[in-house]
Amino acid sequence: MTPAPDALSLLDSAAELADAPLLAIAERLRKAIAPYVACSALIVFTEDCTGRPQKKAGAEHIISRVTLDELDAVRSSLPDLAPRWSEEEIAGRVRPVLAARSSTNALLVLTEPSPAGGRSAAEAMDVVVRLWHLAAVRIRDKVAEAAPSYLRESRAASAERARLTAELTDQHSTTLETMLAALRSPHQSDAAARQAAADLAAGALVRLRSSADRTAALLEEPVAKAFERLQSDLRPLQRFSGIAVQFVEPPADGRALPGEVAHAARAIVRSLVLAMVEQDDVRRIRVQWGCDGTNLLIDIRDDGEGCLSLGEDGMRRIEQRVQALDGELRIEVMASWGADVFVRLPLDAPMPPSREGAEWGLGEREEQVLGLLSGGLRNRAIAAELNVSENTVKFHLRNLFRKLGVSSRAEAIAVAAEARSGTRT
């Protein structure tokens, strides 16, 4: 029996979604759900992608202004995985939305949603939720298997966001604390106005520090929690392969792991364990994590014949993933006694080369574009700010990348921030 045209179209959409690269997954998901729900913008909020926790498609005035605080508030308001039609503050104002969480704790938000194609709201929601859960799982899996270039850019973006958050926290905390001191001064005559302003400023301080805490939570994962998630990932393998996996846990009070290091470490361990399982005569594997304060130290040992080699294709790919984080992988084998794999992953992001005193030769317009890029603006928003076309912005970005010696927006931001920091000191 041939499937109905609608079913075939849905299967095609699901296939395209499954094959979508990380940077295109929001656009693919919006295209897949378009026959069922129309929306002005689609926003995905996922902690699996520490460098880019938001995946967005749709109206620029929404996707360029939506904040992590707004998305975190929406996710916190969802008690379970059931989707919900509601009104939420998104991009600075209250809008009708369709919101849903996934089993990976990622969030989907559709703004100004409406059922399409004459379908009922319930029918449309059923399809959207299924496509969304597929997308959420694919995001998690793609991050776990991310190419070295993605890991490098993710780390650069994470480091820059941490720096900007700390800088903004210090700046605005000082401003608000000064305001409080002035408004509480006995020289002020209008006590009621002074008290009201003091209350507002105190509330702003609380919100600011809460925002900083949430950003820090996105950037880091407690080492014990990261290891617990690894154990959960490997539990099915242990149950069905018949191979005993022994876990030696890291100190519970060890240094928290940057998010991209935690994700990469779990993916690296999973890949190494699978490579060991494929060998003959392996009956036991030991996985141990430790930390020397600056590095995550991983030791994985099997009891096989000692045949594991970095010359194998799979092992070379694992080594590339380690090197993407400026880490190191080495193997010690003893014939008939097994293989011992050691991995070292630095916990601190590598600093870009110092450009203090270097002349980049940027033109006035290129400097403006770099400043707006460092402020987090997208190409369309930069074009609107400078009153030029998006193609002109892309032209300036290409020149910027060439002159700064970088290949991505995140790297350009990080290099510019490092130069500013060097100038101040």
TrEMBL record:
Keywords: DNA-binding, Transcription, Transcription regulation. It comes from the Bacteria. SMART domains: HTH_LUXR. SUPFAM superfamilies: ATPase domain of HSP90 chaperone/DNA topoisomerase II/histidine kinase (SSF55874), C-terminal effector domain of the bipartite response regulators (SSF46894). GO terms for biological process: regulation of DNA-templated transcription. It holds the Pfam family GerE. Residues 354-420 form the HTH luxR-type domain. GO terms for molecular function: DNA binding. InterPro entries: HATPase_C_sf, Sig_transdc_resp-reg_C-effctor, Tscrpt_reg_LuxR_C, WH-like_DNA-bd_sf. This is LuxR C-terminal-related transcriptional regulator. It comes from Sinomonas puerhi.
